[in-house]
């Protein structure tokens, strides 16, 4: 839109210049000042625009509740040319069912495995987690890791509600049928990169209307609050292997054959949890990574370690298997979400000198067909006297 306005203005300036005897140089200077002063304009994208790349079970454009709307059920609509970085995305949305589904929007999409994701959960209408944000990194979602990014909303079937995303450089404010933010994402967890926008209609079906994108620089959100529950002695950096088969990971850890493994240093997230998806792509053939930390003790003794993981873990101390656990979503009961915290504790038998603490962490489905819900590990040593912890 801005380009067409400038093109039209250029033509009219030329006519007036010929009439008044102005030079082309004066015209371009004048236009330059106009361009610098011009505000960002909302760019509507009609729901029947050929810019939408449609794919999936059911897509159609029709009038719904008085609006020209795009219907998506088990389908996606992508603005591949959006090149969206910062600005405002707005649209009206209506769900057609309260069945379990996850309709929403991807933004800053780099490829099919890396993007930011905001979605609603009609089947959780009115609950504290009826809306969620998660980064998707290397094909893995992370809602079990970043479980603080939830919000409450009561959804009405077949009624329009308005969605507005104000995306700054590293944060976002999300408004859902409200003039106040429904959710503040203090820290967008993916590395910043411009990319596509994609609407996703889950199996329940959704309508979208009045879609627009406004480039610009919304005000950044305040700094992310410091989590209050991070324990003392937190491991802040892990050494992490590339994804491998479970059997290969178990063999390497139990035989303490760690010198043949290539390691990547991975700092934990702001909430103290390591997002293991950052090191590589999980596949069915390679769903496991090794994570390790070295603990130097001034004497032989037993020390406590608090830890958490997703989805499954085996814990080794100097090559000896000490613990095996499974925290996959719904593994305990149908209400168990598999979110990660320092729920477990072990007494580690340490020798004097250096000790290798290794987690073999496997990620399953996490209850989410997109790919996991959080591939993670965390650990803390609450009694640090006489200990030195290093990645």
Entry keywords:
3 helices; 3 domains; mainly beta; single chain; 13-stranded antiparallel β-sheet; Jelly Rolls; 42% strand; elongated; 391 residues
- CATH class wording of the largest domain: Mainly Beta
What would you call the shape? elongated
Structural class of the helices, strands and pairings?
mainly beta
Overall number of strands: 24
Describe the fold and architecture.
The chain has 391 residues and is mostly beta strands. The protein has three domains: 2-37, no CATH class; 43-215, Sandwich (Jelly Rolls), CATH 2.60.120; 237-390, Jelly Rolls (Sandwich). It has helices at 2-20, 24-37, 246-254; strands at residues 43-44, 53-64, 67-84, 87-95, 104-111, 114-120, 131-136, 150-151, 161-167, 172-176, 183-185, 195-201, 206-215, 237-240, 264-267, 274-275, 288-297, 301-310, 312-317, 320-326, 344-350, 353-362, 376-380, 387-390. Strands 1, 2, 3, 4, 5, 6, 7, 8, 9, 10, 11, 12 and 13 form a 13-stranded antiparallel β-sheet that branches. Strands 14, 15, 17, 19, 20, 22 and 24 form a seven-stranded antiparallel β-sheet that branches. Helix 1 packs antiparallel against helix 2 (24-37). The longest helix is centred in the first third of the chain and has 19 residues, at 2-20. The termini are far apart.
